[in-house]
Amino acid sequence: MEPNWLKWAKQVAALAQNGLTFSDNPYDIERYEQLREIAAEMMADGFDLDKESVIDLLSREEGYATPKVDVRGAAFRDGKILLVREALDGGWTLPGGWADPCQSPSEAVVREIFEESGFEARVHKLAAVYDRSKHPHLPPIPFHIYKLFFLCEITGGQATESHETTGVGFFAEDAIPALSISRTLPFQIARMFDHLRDPSLPTDFD
User: Fold this and answer.
1) Residue 60: phi, psi to the nearest 5?
2) pLDDT number for residue 1
3) CA dist 19 → 58, 117, 124, 140 (Å)
4) Span 83-139, pLDDT tens digits
5) CA-closest candidate to residue 131, choices 28, 205, 37, 44
6) Fewer Cβ close by (within 10 Å): the C or N end of the chain?
7) At 2, phi and psi to the nearest 5?
8) CA nearest neighbour of 64 among 20, 6, 7
9) Cα dihedral sign for 196, 110, 125, 184?
10) What are residue 146's DSSP bridge partners?
11) CA distances (Å), 196 to each of 15, 109, 190, in order?
C-alpha cells in the first residue's frame, strides 16, 4: 500500500545501516554513509522535509535493521470496544504504542492500555499481526512496522486520560468514531469484533 519510492528508500536505508554495523573498512563505511544519504534524500523529497533532519533520524538507528513493533489492545465491555482519542491528531484508536525492551508483547499492550486509558486488562489472544506498509495507514513513515493486535479483557481501573490521550470511551460496532488512521484502520476494528464473536478464529497475519 505504501508508495514504491518509500519502500525503496527504506530498503536502501536498511542496507546502509547493516553495512555501517558490520563493516570496519573505511572505504566501505564511506560508501554506506553515501547510501544512507541517498535514502535520506529520497525520504526528504517524498515527505517534503529537510534532508539533514532525515539523516539525523536515520543516524540514530543502530545495529542490524529490523522492523519496529507496535502493539494494540482490543478490550471490550458489554460488547463495546475500548478506544482512546489521540492528542496528536484528534482521531480515535485502539490503545497501544511501541513495544519496550525487556517486556513481552502482552506485557507491553497491558501497559499501554493502562497508560492511555486508565483501565487494567488481561490478554486472551493474539488476534492479528499486520505489516503496516501493506495497509492504507496514513501518513507513510520512514520505518518498517509490524502491528500486533491483542484481544483483551478489562479487569479493573477507570477511564483516565493521559498526556497522549484526550478521551476514553467504549463504542458499539456500528458507532465507531473517526479514527486515527495512522494507528488503527476501520477494518482492523471490525476484525477485532469478529474475533470477539468467534474466539476460535486463527490469528490474522500480513
Assistant:
1) -75, -20
2) 76
3) 13, 41, 40, 25
4) 999 999 999 999 999 999 999 999 999 999 999 999 999 999 999 999 999 999 999
5) 205
6) C
7) -80, 155
8) 20
9) positive
10) 69, 131
11) 41, 17, 10
Q: Which residue has the cell 478490550?
A: 75
Dump pLDDT digits (tens) for 162-180: 999 999 999 999 999 999 9
pLDDT for the residue numbered 89? 96
> What type of residue is 119?
F
Q: How many CB atoms sit inside 10 A of residue 1's CB?
A: 11
What average pLDDT does this structure show over 66-77? 97
Cα 174 from Cα 186, distance rounded (Å): 11
> Rg (Cα) of the chain, in Å, rounded?
19
Cell of 3: 508508495
Please give the helix or strand (H or E) that residue 186 lies within, else none: helix 186-197
- Grouping H, G, I as helix, E, B as strand and the rest as coil, residue 128 is strand
Could you list the beta-strand ranges (E) of 106-164. 119-131, 145-157
pTM for the structure as a whole = 0.90
